[in-house]
Specification:
With about 500 residues, this protein is mainly alpha-helical. The protein has 22 helices and 6 strands. The strands form 2 sheets. Strands 1-2-3 form a 3-stranded mixed sheet. Strands 4-5-6 form a 3-stranded mixed sheet. α7 crosses α9. The protein is globular and about 90 Å long.
Length: about 500
């Protein structure tokens, strides 16, 4: 998530290559420091120095290394520190976390992944968490709220001014897939009956404009949204003109309870930097900016990749073994059951395979191409559903189109493999069976590639959840059954 604090605007941000270099440098400094501490500890124990002597020697030994680490970290942006923390094993991560300047704690907690955030928060007491988060904007506090202990939330509410307290309560009331969860409250509101000169004087009262300020929002006395005044329009017009004469209708108006995916699509479609958010009465309540949209898109893309692989949640790569096991076992169990079903399908045709051994060499090809084709279809469907392009009105047309595409692919590549099978085994009937089996398997892959995500969505589940596992299971079992069944009917 993009930082909004003034402190981080002066921090050095890194390119991807230099972020990696920063990780290498910090890792080197960190491990060198821990090695020095270990050697110092051993030396103190061997020489039997007094506690005061030990303290002085230890301090002198490690102070320079700690200063080097502190100085290097203080030059980095919070997002870069978050990246480094995510890339370190847990013991090194927690050691480094203790060295981070406390002023950066809140911003780093916002930037790190949910799984890593959990490990960092677990080492902090209530006072540290309150100090780290109380200076954050209310929308960022709301993003952290699900991971914070209740006593921290209570202390934050008590310490915030009334206006910010209400903003935080509002931000926390939305589900994470709603526009309200992406909204911030740093919008600049102006009236339509004032002059542009008045607007200039008003803006000069700010120490700095909120990030991503590309337009001002024009409201009436009840704060209902009337239009927007883009900054570039403000700059090129006569100062004596009224705001109402030069304001423009906003390209898009978002509502608090709209789906955040719809907002993301609107930002992409209209190339927006910011967009106003209104309540059910048309009152301006905040804005959504492109940095929040980018964060949302990135998080959802990562979630879909994990879901397709059957992972229940984002995982810290250095998480304890038991926690990783809990995250992965469920879909592996499903995969095991489907693999067992596929093996029993093959078992039904043992007699056929014994009589024609070539089937054992060819049947993985049928199942494999079916799985690949099914994954292509299901990926396209899940993406289209995320973009809102699929509805009950066009689902049948889409199904016909996917069946047609896979039928053509099945006939073309089935013919190729049928010819290869004929050349290898000098059996024309085997080549024909191979062609028909591949065509039917690809039709099955197209059918299930469309139906699986649609059924998951109808049941209120994430269409991407375990989709690759399910489609592979269906195409494996179905492909084996089709190929071996046809072979039994026509070859044996």
């Amino acid at each position: 998530m993009t930082s909004t604090t003034e402190q981080n605007t002066v921090k050095k941000t890194e390119t991807p290559e230099r972020i990696h270099d920063a990780l290498v440098e910090v890792t080197s400094l960190l491990r060198r420091q821990r090695l020095v501490e270990g050697l110092a500890r051993e030396q103190l124990e061997e020489e039997g120095l007094t506690e005061q002597q030990s303290s002085l020697l230890k301090s002198a030994t490690i102070e320079q290394g700690l200063n080097n680490l502190h100085n290097y970290l203080n030059r980095l942006h919070s997002a870069d520190i978050a990246y480094i923390l995510e890339a370190l094993p847990i013991d090194e991560r927690l050691y480094l976390w203790d060295l981070v300047h406390s002023d950066q704690d809140g911003e780093i907690l916002v930037e790190v992944s949910d799984a890593v955030r959990e490990s960092l928060i677990s080492t902090m007491d209530t006072e540290e968490l309150v100090a780290a988060t109380e200076s954050l904007p209310t929308d960022e506090i709301a993003a952290l709220a699900p991971d914070l202990p209740q006593e921290v939330i209570d202390d934050l509410f008590q310490g915030l001014p009334m206006e910010e307290r209400e903003e935080l309560r509002t931000a926390m009331s939305f589900d994470e897939d709603m526009v309200g969860a992406l909204m911030d409250f740093e919008d600049i509101q102006i009236r339509g009956d004032v002059s542009l000169e008045t607007v200039f004087r008003y803006l000069r009262r700010f120490d700095a404009l909120p990030t991503q300020t590309d337009q001002l929002f024009v409201v009436d006395r009840e704060e209902a949204l009337l239009g927007v005044l883009p900054i570039h329009v403000l700059l090129v017009n006569d100062e004596n003109k009224r705001v109402g004469d030069v304001m423009q209708p906003p390209p898009i108006i978002l509502r608090q309870h709209e789906n955040a995916r719809d907002a993301a699509n609107a930002f992409e479609r209209y190339d927006l930097v910011s967009a106003p958010v209104v309540d059910t009465n048309g009152k301006l309540v905040g804005r959504v900016t492109v940095d929040e949209i980018l964060d949302f898109i990135k998080e959802r893309a990562e979630e879909e990749v994990l879901a397709q692989a059957g992972l229940r949640e984002e995982e810290d790569v250095f998480a304890p073994v038991w926690k990783s096991f809990q995250n992965r076992w469920a879909w592996l169990a499903v995969n095991l059951m489907t693999a067992f079903v596929a093996s029993r399908v093959i078992g039904l045709f043992e007699h056929t395979i014994v009589q024609l051994v070539a089937l054992a060499a060819l049947m993985p090809i049928v199942a494999g191409i079916g799985g690949n084709s099914g994954n292509q279809t299901i990926t396209m469907i899940v993406r289209s559903m995320a973009l809102g392009q699929i509805s009950s009105a066009n689902a049948r047309q889409l199904l016909r189109k996917e069946l047609s595409v896979n039928l053509i692919n099945g006939v073309v590549w089935g013919s190729v493999m049928g010819l290869i099978a004929y050349l290898l085994y000098q059996d024309a009937a085997l080549g024909v069976v191979m062609m028909i089996a591949m065509a039917l398997t690809l039709l099955l892959a197209a059918l299930m590639g469309v139906l699986i995500p649609l059924i998951m969505a109808r049941l209120g589940r994430d269409p991407a959840l375990g989709s690759s596992v399910l489609i592979t299971a269906v195409t494996d079992s179905g492909g084996f059954f089709i190929f071996l069944g046809l072979a039994t009917l026509f070859l044996i």
